[in-house]
Design brief:
Elements lengths: L5 H34 L11 H7 L3 H24 L5 E2 L1 E5 L2 E4 H12 L5 E11 L2 E10 L5 H19 L5 E6 L2 H5 L7
Parallel strand pairs: 5-6
Antiparallel strand pairs: 1-4, 2-3, 4-5
Length: 192
């Protein structure tokens, strides 16, 4: 789920589940009602054709079946297109020089070590993406509330410069600075 919206995923799953339950109930309901009446000992006349059975037995049955098939085909094509567009571009390799590969975990550790002493930083995350044949980094810096941004940006610049020196190559970097629930519960760092 690299770039997909989790809320959208859950909504689609919930909708599919509700539709599946409704379809199952529509199929089982007439038989269950008839069985309930038979168990009660009542005389059950032949059940009239209702709902889907009436549509499929009537003169419009080909139209109904065709419309259902068309809706199912469109839904299938949209689902395949949506699934195929998820997660493109993510890579674990940041630099690959002469068969030596540097993994995103090493880059994340370097950035964490470089930004760890900064009091405003709670955590650092990094992901690598292949864009037009080049690797770019997306660095997320989780900060405490009301952090001193100029000091923080200087620390991030220094960390990125240290990273470029360690990698031996300049990698394009997009930095995202944010606060969140984790930052509000984080303990304050104290010098000892």
């Amino acid at each position: 789920m690299t770039r997909s919206n989790r809320t959208l995923n859950r909504l689609v799953l919930a909708l599919v589940g509700v539709l599946a339950l409704a379809g199952a109930a529509a199929l089982v309901w007439p038989a269950a009602a008839r069985a309930r009446l038979e168990v009660a000992g009542l005389v059950v006349p032949p059940a009239p054709r209702l709902g889907l059975a009436a549509l499929l037995a009537g003169p419009d049955r080909l139209g109904v079946a065709g419309a259902a098939a068309a809706v199912a085909l469109v839904a299938l094509l949209l689902a395949v297109a949506w699934t195929a567009s998820r997660g493109r571009g993510g890579t674990a390799t940041v630099v690959d020089v002469d068969g030596v590969r540097i993994d995103i975990h090493a880059v994340r550790d370097l950035l964490q070590d470089s930004l760890g002493p900064t009091p405003a930083v709670v955590g650092v995350g990094a992901t690598a993406h292949r864009l037009r044949g080049r690797t770019a980094l997306r660095v997320t810096v989780l900060t405490r509330r009301h952090a001193d941004l100029p000091t923080l940006l200087d620390a991030v610049r220094g960390a990125v410069d240290d990273l470029d020196a360690a990698l031996g190559a300049r990698v394009p970097v997009v930095v995202r600075v944010r606060t969140g629930l984790r930052s509000s519960f984080a303990r304050e760092q104290r010098a000892e």
